[in-house]
Amino acid sequence: MTITLHDQLGMKTFRRARCTIPAMACGLAMILALQIARAKDALLSELQKSQATEAISIVWNDGGSVGVLLFGDGKLHETRILPSAVVGRDVSLTSDGEQVAFGLFEQPSDLHQPTLLAVASSDGSNLRKIPTMQQPMMICWSPRKDRLVLWASKTDSGKGSKASGLWTLWLDTGESTLIDAHGSAYCPSWSPDGAKLVYSAKGAVSIYDTEARTSRRLAEGDYATWSPDGKWIATSKGNDYWLLDPESGAGKVLFKQKNAFTPLWWSPDSQYLAYATHVGVSLSIVEQVDLRVRRVHDGADVRLQRSAWKTGVPDVQWVRSLLLLARAKSGS
């Protein structure tokens, strides 16, 4: 078989092309990695700016203290928010950080006793107990700070009987309404106008009308949260996070994350979502979780902090409070 000069040139061109294709793929991968890194840096810079100019922080609730995340150093700064000598759990702050609702241990020496609902100012003053609401969990303040939605066991003072489930509670009158008696109802979240709230129970997302006192099923999903601008309800379905239309229930996949296990917590301007993921392979014998933030419009995603975690779902919220931020920075 005779190989001509033309054939030799063709084989050289082919070999050169085979070498060029992997190089091009490598170059594109490097460009993509650089773009992702720049997007993460830009996202972190935005968060730092919002904290500096608007006092917006992510707060990790844990017992009587909260960990205020400073975006500049990426650390949780423990800040006491309950009254002195008070022991509590399941803490929830108002969006402005001025008031706190929590489960109060009346006898701090015995943490096996059921807690009762209490509210106070976040500087530790104005403690008020609501003994009819016991073992409060998943507490969420209404936008006007006049009501709470929470899971609790309510005691009827006259009959002594108890009813457990998801409740709304007016703080001025103490009037309460049972929304859902299912023990699995969780993750309540108010609409921006406070007229409705969304919650999840038995794998379904439902919307409760506080005026009509009726619920309607919206879609399948867990961990439903309402965006502050009112446009979307975020929920999880398996490894996918979805955005649902609050009226029709029509949805779209926002992103996939197999290690995520929490609700999506909306920032006050609805531009960002915080969530937590289990750390995969780790040399640590203690379970760890990553706290992450994702920008909604383009999917830029950054890990903010890695923490040890015992069990359950972390309780995280966004708060806009200059006083709380100052206390976190000062270590008080």
The general outline is: globular
- The total tally of domains equals 2
Report how far apart the termini are: 87 Å
Which oligomeric form is depicted? single chain
CATH homology superfamily of the largest domain:
TolB, C-terminal domain
Report the total helices.
Answer: 2
Question: How would you describe what is shown here?
Answer:
There is one protein chain. By secondary structure, this protein is of the alpha+beta class. The chain folds into two domains: 1-54; 56-330, TolB, C-terminal domain (Neuraminidase), CATH 2.120.10.30. Helices cover 18% and strands 46% of the residues. It is built from two helices and 23 strands. A seven-stranded antiparallel sheet has the order 4-5-6-7-8-9-10, with no helix packed on it. It has a four-stranded antiparallel sheet with strand order 3-2-1-23. The chain starts with a helix and ends with a helix.
Summarize this entry quickly.
By secondary structure, the protein is of the alpha+beta class.
Question: Helices and strands in order, then pairings?
Answer:
Blueprint: H1 5-54, E1 56-62, E2 65-70, E3 75-80, E4 87-93, E5 99-105, E6 116-121, E7 128-141, E8 147-155, E9 162-170, E10 176-180, E11 186-190, E12 196-201, E13 204-209, E14 214-220, E15 222-226, E16 233-237, E17 240-244, E18 251-256, E19 265-266, E20 272-278, E21 288-295, E22 301-308, E23 315-320, H2 322-330
Antiparallel strand pairs: 1-2, 1-23, 2-3, 4-5, 5-6, 6-7, 7-8, 8-9, 9-10, 11-12, 12-13, 13-14, 15-16, 16-17, 17-18, 19-20, 20-21, 21-22
